[in-house]
Design brief:
Layout: H1 8-17, E1 47-49, E2 56-58, E3 62-63, H2 70-78, E4 83-85, H3 94-103, E5 112-117, H4 127-142, E6 147-155, H5 158-162, H6 164-175, E7 179-186, H7 190-200, E8 205-209, H8 217-229, E9 233-237, H9 255-263, E10 268-271, H10 278-289, H11 295-304, H12 317-321, H13 328-339, H14 344-353, H15 378-385
Parallel strand pairs: 3-4, 4-5, 5-6, 6-7, 7-8, 8-9, 9-10
Antiparallel strand pairs: 1-2
Helix pairs in contact: 1-2, 3-4, 7-8, 9-10, 13-14, 13-15
Length: 397
């Protein structure tokens, strides 16, 4: 297969001139459409089936989370990507609005849209009403009657997955035609949550953090295999461990190597890197066209395996050690968003959702008792990220 790079000029040209179906194979649907090179030479990306949904996807998709330029979405779509992942809370709803505005004139069978919504747990009396309103608002922003996949967002314990009220409401969403497939996303306790999903029996897709730095990789891979056997499809996020090689967030990681590593697992249907510019998209496309890890890339990743980076394992052991019982895994994720992804807005949103107090850590007098299993200097990171909460939104990136 020819590996011809896609340059910025080509992307801009096609952003302006390509019609809604210009690069879709005649008669193809969302499950059979193949990728097309923007310069006109058709190149198929490897395609995998998303569990029992039957949806066939290129191994590369787009996490729209950080993108605020519809031209990047257009370039991805015109390059052959068909699965686009957003969420109710991204950019305070503006992300869904942008996605909806871009796709409103596109053939509905030419793309797959996933969105996500959080709920408080334990459930409140108003859960059904509140969560239904959340989904309805997402559909309104997206200008769609339904989404292809709806993920309950950032779950952290098995009870949230098997809770009867949650299960029944998700089944109702599907019966009402508001969602085609039921899923959840998770950053933590993945083996336990995957097994809970198999037990619940209604979950068709799981969006899971998956990268070469996972401390419980063997257990996670075994759980994913059990999920696949039960018909669940898996989508990978956080494949780039925070986006940088170093704990300070200064040296960009090799995205191609990270993606190729994730695709080694045949049970990972697709990955959703959050590229925000043409260069990053080009890098991801190049990886998808030649997904086999090179010797150099294997050596590169091996050298990073024991290096201090930004990715928090979300193991939760820090909570038990913290005198104030702070949501340290969420705080570390917020730190990664700010210093790795350079996305301070999402960092602030994460901290506010975690109900982090501006006075957190003051009671310890500078002597933090937490010993992170990944070697993070927790107290220093918390001190560095707390000021984000006080910055007005209009000044955040």
């Amino acid at each position: 297969m020819e590996n011809k790079n896609v340059n910025r000029r080509d992307f801009l040209r096609f952003s302006v001139t390509a019609g809604a179906g210009a690069l879709i194979i005649p008669g193809a649907t969302a499950s059979t459409r193949k990728a097309a090179d923007p310069v006109g030479k058709t190149n198929a990306f490897p395609v995998r089936t998303l569990g029992k949904t039957g949806i066939q996807l290129p191994i590369l998709s787009m996490g729209v989370m950080r993108a605020d330029n519809p031209n990047i979405v257009r370039a991805a779509y015109n390059s052959g990507l068909i699965y686009f992942d957003t969420a109710h809370g991204y950019q305070n709803g503006r992300n869904e609005e942008m996605v909806g505005a871009f796709f409103k004139d596109k053939p509905r069978d030419s793309f797959i849209i996933a969105t996500k919504g959080k709920f408080d747990y334990p459930l409140k009396d108003t859960f059904e009403q509140t969560y239904t309103g959340l989904l309805d608002l997402s559909l309104k922003r997206l200008q769609m009657d339904y989404v292809d996949i709806f993920f309950t967002h950032a779950l952290g314990n098995a009870k949230e997955i098997t809770d009867e009220r949650v299960v029944e409401l998700l089944k109702k969403f599907k019966a009402d035609g508001k969602i085609r497939h039921i899923g959840f996303s998770t950053h933590a306790h993945k083996p336990e949550l995957i097994d809970a999903a198999v037990e619940a029996g209604i979950y068709e897709v799981i969006l899971v953090s998956y990268n070469f730095k996972l401390g419980n990789l063997k257990e996670t891979d075994e759980a994913i295999a059990r999920g696949v056997k039960a018909g669940i499809g898996f989508v990978a996020m956080k494949t780039m461990t925070g986006g940088t090689e170093d704990a300070g967030g200064k040296k960009k990681i090799d995205a191609k190597a990270c993606l190729k590593w994730a695709w080694k697992n045949e049970h990972i249907t697709t990955a959703i890197p959050g590229f925000t510019n043409y260069d990053e998209l080009e890098e991801c496309l190049a990886a998808a066209k030649n997904p086999e890890l090179t010797t150099g890339e294997k050596e590169y990743l091996a050298a990073l395996c024991h290096q201090d980076m930004l990715y928090c394992q979300q193991c939760g052991q820090c909570r038990e050690q913290c005198v104030e019982q702070l949501p340290i895994p969420d705080i570390m994720r917020a730190y990664m968003y700010a210093y790795g992804y350079k996305y301070s807005q999402l960092s602030k949103e994460t901290l506010l959702e975690a109900n982090l107090s501006p006075d957190a850590c003051k009671g310890c007098g500078g002597s933090c008792k937490v010993k992170c299993t990944s070697g993070f200097d927790v107290a220093t990171k918390i001190a560095a990220i707390k000021p984000v909460m006080a910055i007005p939104n209009e000044f955040l990136t």
